[in-house]
Amino acid sequence: MSRLRKRTMLIAASAMQAGIDSAVTIAARTPALLSQGFNPTSESARESRRMVQEKVDAVYEGALAAQMAWASFLLKASFGGIRNASDLSLGLANVAEAAIRPARRKVRANARRLTGLPKIG
Fold this sequence. Notes:
Layout lengths: L2 H34 L5 H37 L6 H31 L6
């Protein structure tokens, strides 16, 4: 199996897991967020602030990681490390993966924290 095909499969599997983790996190947070309008508690307010801050953090971390991966890609390309279309695709996939990794990590951690799921792998 080619490196590009393997990488594509890993990206797809990671995206699918992030989708599942997002659904679990949304399902766990929805009751608390809905009750905030009727009976706000300091815990629900804290969770709301945390939810927003985590998204902001993930955006900044992803942007920085993408910039670093892009710089690495350009450096590699400038020294002849991009020899074919597959190298180009893998390099761009590295940039995309770097950008999304912080968000995936946070959504996975939230799914575990909010539901008590064990850490596997």
